[in-house]
Amino acid sequence: MAKKEIKKAVLAYSGGLDTSIILKWLQDEYNCEVVTFTADLGQGEEVEPAREKALAMGIKPENIFILDLREEFVKDFVFPMFRANTIYEGEYLLGTSIARPLIAKKQIEIANQTGADAVSHGATGKGNDQVRFELGYLGLNPDITVIAPWREWDLNSREKLLAYAQKHGIKIEKKQGTESPYSMDANLLHISYEGLVLEDPSKEPEESMWLWTTSPENAPDEAEYITIEYKNGDPIGINGEEMSPATILTKLNEYGNKHGIGRIDIVENRYVGMKARGCYETPGGTIMLKAHRAIESITLDREAAHLKDELMPRYAKLIYNGYWWSPEREMLQAAIDKTQENVEGTVRLKLYKGNVMVVGRESEKSLFSEAHSTFEEDEVYDQSDAEGFIRLNALRFIIAGKNRK
To answer: Can 120 be counted among the known catalytic residues?
Structure first.
């Protein structure tokens, strides 16, 4: 099929091998002008070198966008997701999934700003990210053209990519002692690892793979206590100090890394149909999830809390599969956010060798009544009332039981 004529394409560009090759490939295959977009999501790597690499490949200075998105990422994407206590398939805190809708949003904004008629990404045809990016693009601009090189070219091995880079003079930097052999993705919420030994789900990953967290065995022998303050379901401060959303997550990552918190090794079901094994470090997010459930435990009505837990797997699947910008996700978000109006107060946590333990929670809007729940004598609850409550709830059992006789 003939390629569509493209005038200008916005490329999600990291400056690494894959996206540098894609940049050159777009120039050659589509003969189009390329705009590069590099997002700082707190991945822990310097993003400015991407500017020099793009310039060296002929990109005009006005077509190079490097944006610090850390605050927007945490405030508008991570925090709303955590209000729902979101976990995919019981374990995954969706660190990669939640970054994609923001990247897609910014690419479309840059396309509108620069008059581009196409967007491009470096996701492969086997993974979830192609779906997440492209559902975002088309949900925000249904007229945009999407270019997914991995579904078009024949550069389907690392050897072919390296040969292409050499042929076209694309510089390949090799930093001794700092490169990981795994396929990785990182942002302020997590870092992920795939490939190599991890492709065999029976093999334990080597300790050297983990880049962020101290091994729980080597974590401090003394527990550390912290407090997290919440307002409207979002954390607003740590240990009595108010902080911005990105600063809070950064600080919680430091605590989690120190105490070996947030490692998981899972086999997940990808949206495209295959199972994939991945390892993740989500230190601050693991602490946040525990704290949020703790403050909800005293501020949320029972049925609202239970309904939230029933909705959460659907909400998690929407994010995992790339439907952040869908009307159903927005509908669920509105319901979730309504439940968070009184979710405020302070949670005290104990961090120790890979564990996050809740040791206290308090709120001016607490629904916990010591007078009603005490095991000591009280004047507010007549225990004989429970008999009628039980018999009414058992009525259908009683009728069915008599019929059986």
So the answer is: no
Told to judge if 244 belongs to the known catalytic residues of this protein, a careful annotator would answer no
183, 297, 326, 366: the catalytic one is 183
Q: Nearest-5° angle of CA 57, CA 59, CA 65?
A: 120
**Res 207: pLDDT:** 96
Burial classification of residue 92, based on how many CB atoms lie within 10 Å of its CB (0-12 exposed, 13-18 middle, 19 or more buried): buried
Tell me the residue type at 307. Answer: L
At residue 179, does pLDDT exceed 80? no
Its domain, for residue 111, covers 8-69+96-167
**Catalytic residue status for 100:** yes
**Which of 108, 143, 167 is the last residue in one of the domains?**
167
Confirm if 224 and 351 have CB atoms less than 8 A apart: yes
DSSP code of 323?
Answer: -
**Per residue in 72-84, pLDDT tens?**
999 999 999 999 9
Q: What confidence tier does 176 reach under pLDDT thresholds 50, 70, 90?
A: very low
Q: How far apart are CA 303 and CA 298, in angstroms?
A: 13
Catalytic choice (51, 70, 83, 100):
100
Number of domains in the chain: 2
The rounded distance, in Å, linking the Cα atoms of 269 and 126 is 12
Q: Is 8 strand, coil or helix?
A: strand
Separation between Cα atoms, residue 192 and residue 185, nearest integer Å: 5
Whether 404 is a known active-site residue: answer no
Q: Which of 40, 129, 185, 234 is catalytic?
A: 129
Looking at residue 156, its pLDDT comes to 83
Higher pLDDT, 362 or 383: 362
In a domain, 261, yes or no: yes
Of the residues 167, 199, 227, which one is the last residue of a structural domain?
Answer: 167
**pLDDT, tens digit, for every residue of 59-70?**
999 999 999 999
